Hints:
The protein is an alpha/beta fold.
Amino acid sequence: MSKTIVITGAGSGFGALSARALADEGHTVFAAMRNTTTRNAARVAEAVAYAAEHQVDLRTVELDVLSQESVDAAVATVLADAGRLDVIIHNAGHMVTGPAEAFTPEELAAVYDTNVLGTQRVNRAALPYLRAQESGLVVWVGSTSTRGGTPPYLAPYFAAKSAMDALAVSYAAELARFNIETTIVVPGSFTSGTDHFVTGGHPADLTVVPAYEERYAGMMDQVSERLAALAPADADASQVADAIVRVVGTEHGKRPFRVHIDPVDDGSETVSAVADHIRSEFLTRIGLDDLLVPRAAR
């Protein structure tokens, strides 16, 4: 059954690939991104061209996850244009690289704002509609860094993604009785096919960096090179899009709680399996096992 889907951060990388792949499957997809008439105008044009060439229902909508006003307007636009909303995909994210000490608290807060508070703004705009219709799916695009291998110089991003994962787990239980399903998609390190490293930020406090460069010279380049060397030759960012398509296409109530796409195999899947088992066992022990699945699946 065709669904109406909003995916944030859909100008490039996982977001753009997923938007196109979902549209190819017959869904109505709103590729949400900010600055649609300025910096991202070319990406909007690419989405329009793709829709025309492939005869699919791929649309774009202005949405800045840093602004509640923008998010509210975007969700209102989707509902006005499509008449419904079935799936929210939290994909927007921002990465910064460098020694943790060199980032100001304000810089860490900015990363948290995009990766965590951005999802809250989207939820507050969209969930009232999904709750009212008593159906829906929320997909969170996380990161294996929340529980797997954690190389240095990525601390603000890892911390924010960990917070987002914790928020997703809590939301899953709180939405189940509204018949809203949750899946956390967990990509590993894809060093090509996304703009994470290309558009990533760097610390503002340059007085701290030299001391670290003396002991950790070229660390970020080493991390990127070694992650790339670990990845199999067929590792491709489109695998994340394919996983999202499978999740959306799965029957309601039977979707996996968590899906890993990790070509490097950094251990996150092993740790998550234990954590998710403990969550399931604990909710069952305290008599809240109904929160493990959406209401209609019970």
